[in-house]
């Protein structure tokens, strides 16, 4: 039976048969959509729901008695106490766009489908973890523990709350705990500076710098699809993670925030429009024009995530209309951004490079029978 998904990582996925199909980064709200699918999923969802009937803890808190997971000497960050945000990671030197910041194996992973109680499952898996790993897990923060429960009397429920606050996707159908990565706090649109991805080949989570980060800056990832308004984002984050987001974007003054909301809403709308190319509702030229509009709006917003995927969609559309030169240019752009997001040696970079070298070998090549000059990237990166 399916289990409510944790925060999905940016997955290394095959190019979609339809542009901009399901988001690479999602959120736990996606669980609600398929809520009714199984009793077990409901059981997972029931934990925060029960907590909701009592009181959500307003801030994350750790158990405080276990040692911190020791960062390696080569890490470009330290774990720091940050006012109002619990612990977080802060850069101890400048970090370059595309740099690998964390590469981490999971303490344990759980499948999305389980046949036993989540509390029993997490407790059993924890028993199999080393004492250091267990201590690191128990030191992580958590929210949504029903009132009146505590570690002494309800260790299983506390472990489950820790899991639910910190788990991220480890592949398509598992979620895992990564104690170092778990210290990353959240930022919206232009505020987050790291993206993470699960790599099947290495069976590890890779976290890369999406933009240049200066020494002293906090490292931030994003917990949700931030292409929505400030109020919508805040509501989701408050419900799921128990905090009111005050990142740089959420802290903009009213006028600037309104502009940001408008841009993000328009970006989401254009993504929807782009998707309709897959069912033949818009032409290849209009689809490419839409990608260029998204790119421009994202430049204005400072929203840089998912650009590898967006450019790869451009290559897909160009290839499907047998437009080799556009496919090559979009492919180049995809390689550039996948390299930042996923690493130069990732499967997607290697696969996309093949489109640059031999566009006519793309699996979508000629699938839209009508050859068409669809349009090229209108960005400086091209
Ligand atoms: C995965 S943990 C992140 C690390 C956590 N701060 C800690 O001390 O271990 C998620 C929790 O961190 C806190 N958090 C994350 N991002 C935040 C933000 N932008 N503002 C305030 N609290 C945040 C929330 O309590 C959230 O439930």
From TrEMBL:
Residues 75-224 form the SET domain. Pfam families: SET. Residues 1-32 are annotated as: Disordered. InterPro entries: SET_dom, SET_dom_sf, SET_domain_protein. This is SET domain-containing protein 5. It comes from Mycena sanguinolenta.
